[in-house]
Write a structure and sequence with these properties.
Rossmann fold, 6-stranded parallel β-sheet, 15 strands
Length: 270
């Protein structure tokens, strides 16, 4: 990917880039408005599969960011898109929340506990031992194992909590079957997002705050990559990896173009 001047379409992570603890980060609202005003194709991406795009749009609005639901792309949507491409009209047993089940329903899938084509594990705060046991038995019975994202922990007010990757590891240990992970850092999520907005890797940029997901997946998808320092990355974190983003910025406010100054027009003398 060349310079930022060649970018015509944008993908951006949400947490740590646009918002932090439900507060909009500096420049985020202005950047979204800039894209909206200019008709720039963009999508806001998240590995979180709990919420539907409508839910997330409302949560962002409460943070001061006006992002239409059609501009939000979740790992649940990417997972449903992948499953539909592999087995149209298929069936699935789901461990997850409304974001995942709604996406699969809209993709034409049937939710079932009887001989499903897929076992899909997504984010939830209500993991059930019975559901995990059922997933193990269905996978041993031949169901394909899909996971929305590999994150082993997630944040909470009281500290880290087990997330999708941790539950997937438990199922893998019980079945000796590794899942196919659709969300970041799989570049599949970026490719499905680009397909959604008709973008191409040659003219698309990815903004993220993590080297191990946003940047590496962006590089593997052939995108112009921008790392912002408003999330979890610092220089020591960058130095740990053998790859580099195309740009490192302090935050998305650096991507907001300044409005041209209005100058007084002096009428010419006749």
């Amino acid at each position: 990917m060349g310079t930022r001047d060649e970018v015509e379409c944008w993908l951006t992570d949400m947490d740590g880039v646009l918002v932090h603890e439900n507060q909009a980060l500096p420049g985020a609202a202005a950047l979204i408005q800039q894209w909206q005003d200019e008709g720039t194709p963009y999508l806001v991406l998240t590995n979180n599969s709990i919420f539907t795009p409508r839910d997330l749009s409302a949560r962002l609005r409460a943070s001061g960011l006006h992002v239409p639901e059609e501009r939000i792309w979740t790992s649940a949507l990417a997972t449903a898109d992948f499953c539909r491409s592999q087995m149209p009209g298929g069936s699935a047993f789901v461990i997850g929340e409304a974001g995942m089940t709604t996406a699969l329903h809209e993709a034409g899938f049937i939710m079932t506990e009887t001989d499903p084509d897929y076992v899909v594990v997504g984010e939830t705060r209500n993991y059930s031992f019975d559901a995990i046991t059922k997933a193990v038995r269905l996978i041993l019975g031949g169901a394909r194992f899909i996971v929305t994202n590999p994150d082993t922990t997630g944040p909470s007010a009281d500290g880290p909590m087990p997330a999708t990757g941790a539950i997937a590891a438990m199922i893998t240990a019980a079945t000796n079957k590794s899942p196919y992970v659709v969300g970041k850092p799989n570049p599949m999520m970026f490719r499905s997002a680009m397909n959604r907005i008709g973008a191409h890797s040659e003219n698309t940029a990815m903004i993220g705050d993590r080297m191990d997901t946003d940047v590496v997946a962006g590089i593997e998808a052939g995108l112009h990559t921008i790392l912002v320092m408003t999330g979890i990355s610092d220089q020591a974190e960058i130095d740990r990896y053998p790859f580099r983003p195309n740009e490192v910025l302090s935050g998305v406010h650096e991507l907001v173009r300044a409005e041209p100054l209005e100058t007084d027009v002096v009428p010419s003398e006749l």
